Amino acid sequence: MSTGELLNALIDKLEEWAVAMVRLLPNLALAVLVIFLGLLAAKVVKNFSKKQLTKFHVDKTITGFLSRILYIAVFVVALVVSLSILNLSGTVASILAGFGILGLALGFAFQDTAANFMSGIYITFNQPFAIGDVIEAKNGTMGNVVDINLRITKIKTFDGPIVYVPNRFLFEDDFTNFTESGQRRLRVACGVSYGDDLDKVEKIVMQALQDTPGRIQNEDITLHWVEFGDSSIDFTANIWLDYTRENKAFVGAKNYAIKALKKAFDENDIMIPFPIRTLDFGIKGGVTFKEEIKESGAWSSNGSERSN
User: Which end of the chain, N or C, is surrounded by fewer C-beta atoms within 10 Å?
Assistant: First the structure.
């Protein structure tokens, strides 16, 4: 075949493609329109589902998850319809098969991400904790849950920073949920001197802590004597507090309890001992520190320290 014949064949092929493209333009325009309307419909469905689920008091985490699923589903339907308009049904099947193989490969390559995703689904529907709860992870991270998505959980610590915890750690490891039960015990440790009347101390402690903010009124304040310490008899006062997502006045209650105990003890002459340290300078028994210095010659006759 000569060069001229090859050139004519190429031109004929390009003309065929051009004619096919012109014939395809209406379907292409319709397919683009379907995708655009699909995106618009997906956003409408997402916002509508959020409002309806919120109206029925569905948890925020589940609401966000379901609304995202509906958004993706509507968009995928629009994409399949647009490909069908272009007579690419076979292409759709090939794409789906390709996605399956790609998903399998990515599953092996990103096992941790997949584990986080599955853990996020479990956390979303089983709800071992929810937004607003106070939790403590196994690694010691503690704070308020501010967001839960399919990959990570955001925890705002009491110092302010937000920690991103992968969901698989909260799924596989143990953690503590402080707000799920709705109550939390406040323990205030203290000590009194050996010369104080312990029965009197108990009565004073009970009276002083009665008005602790957030205290559950039908739960009695308890006091447990712990041990004979080096300079005091130690005890803990235990107070049950309301502790929910809306009411987390734990630190304020502890501050109040400590101040109330100190004030009550001062008013009733109850002593809170503090450790006393004795320094041994190697002085023989019965000899004062001043006398020892005089004997060493470091003290002048007028009672002042001799300068070198």
Answer: C
Residues 6+ apart with CB under 8 A from 255: none
Range(s) of the domain holding residue 195: 183-267
Say how far apart CA 142 and CA 175 lie, in whole Å. 10
Antiparallel, parallel or unpaired: β 233-242 and 162-166: unpaired
Whether the CA torsion 114, 119, 124, 130 is positive or negative: it is negative
Which residue matches tokens 């092996």?
108
pLDDT one-digit tens code per residue, 177-236: 998 888 999 999 999 999 999 999 999 999 999 999 999 999 999 999 999 988 899 999
Q: How wide is the angle at C-alpha 275 spanned by C-alphas 272 and 276, nearest 5°?
A: 120
Question: Sorting pLDDT into bands at 50, 70 and 90, what band is 124?
Answer: confident
d(CA 263, CA 209): 11
Domain annotation covers residue 225: yes
- Residue 112 sits at the vertex; the CA angle it makes with 74 and 117, to the nearest 5 degrees, is 30
Average pLDDT over residues 92-117: 66
The residue among 198, 261, 282 whose CA lies nearest residue 234 is 198
Tell me which DSSP letter residue 215 carries: B
**CATH classification at residue 149:** 2.30.30.60
Identify the H or E element spanning 76: helix 60-85
What is the tally of structural domains in the chain?
Answer: 4
Q: How far apart are CA 115 and CA 120, in angstroms?
A: 8
Q: Which two tokens stand for residue 260?
A: 């109330």
Cα–Cα separations (whole angstroms), residue 212 to 96, 125, 239 = 63, 37, 8
CA pseudo-torsion sign 40, 43, 47, 52: positive
Query: Is 186 exposed, middle or buried (CB count within 10 Å of its CB: 0-12, 13-18, 19+)?
Result: buried
148 and 231 together in one domain: no
Asked if 162 and 227 sit in the same domain, the reply is no
